Amino acid sequence: MATMKTIKNQDSVSAFIENVEDERKREDCRMLIKIMCQITGSQAAMWGSSIVGFGSYHYRYASGREGDFFLTGFSPRKQNLTVYVMPGFSQYDSLMQKLGKHKVGKSCLYMKKLEDVDIRILTRLIDESVQEMRRKYPNCQTT
């Protein structure tokens, strides 16, 4: 079985953010940290080498595979700012229509910059997704 690469570690979130080349993207990261800390009650932590995650949950699949992952998080990628909405987007159609300029993957929300989206809608989306994860995984951790 393959070993997960995206695991929580002790690397410095502040140092990671300070190494983001674009100043606007650094400011967007600081705003996301503020929003996600408030929603989750968790401090930011590095997951792997390029993801800032908040809280955690333990999953176990029918196949026997299990592990830990963050409740929500983000990554300042070169092309996009990526926000991780772990339950996916199917139940958030009305919010997604109001969000603003974005693209989505399975659990990834891609945007160029925070000013491209309605920050109130983004905050609500993150909040509702974290609530859903806490319902699905009642033993979530906030540290």
Q: How is this structure best described in words?
A:
With 143 residues, the chain is of the alpha+beta class. Helices cover 34% and strands 24% of the residues. The protein has helices at residues 13-18, 23-40, 93-99, 119-136, and strands spanning 8-9, 44-47, 51-54, 57-60, 66-69, 72-76, 81-85, 103-104, 108-111. A hairpin with a 4-residue loop joins strand 6 (72-76) and strand 7 (81-85). It is globular. The chain contains 4 helices and 9 strands. The strands form 2 sheets. The chain has a 7-stranded antiparallel β-sheet. A two-stranded antiparallel ribbon has the order 4-5.
Provide a short characterization of the protein structure.
By secondary structure, the chain is α+β, with helices and mostly antiparallel strands. The protein has helices spanning 13-18, 23-40, 93-99, 119-136, and strands spanning 8-9, 44-47, 51-54, 57-60, 66-69, 72-76, 81-85, 103-104, 108-111.
